[in-house]
User: Fold this.
Amino acid sequence: GNTVTPSAHIDEFGADAVRYWSGLARYGADTAFDTGIMKIGRRLAMKVFNASKFALQSSADAGEITEPLDLAFLAKLKAQCEDARKAFETWEPASALMDSEKFFWSNFTDSYVELVKMRSLSGVGVSKASAVHTLRFAVRTFLKLFAPFLPYTTDEVWRWAFTDEAPSVHQA
Assistant:
């Protein structure tokens, strides 16, 4: 009588939201059951879905990432990936999730996407290509970062654009 079956919560919030809640549990520590956390997980899954939809809607000719803003964002993203890797290696996946989520919201969706929105949609030439390729790279990276915690959302988005790399994000 002291356990909660997740079926009703999966129906209400979605499997990724329940998985998100469980992903925040720290190893060896009791975790309180909290539907509020599941609501946050559902919101993150929807944001990953919508941000990816935006980022993948533009296309550009082959080109390199050359714009200073794009390069600066990628340097921060690389550092975040390194931090997440270290968290997984030290058996702290909850830290990887929390830090990656914070970076996703503050550095990607709230900042970078807003700064390059017009350039990626209506820009031309090298500047547009740099923004589009950076957005696609970022989405691919975030899908890999969030895949252990939001497996269904990330795999769905992966199948939109990245099956040339692997058939599923979980195989990438």
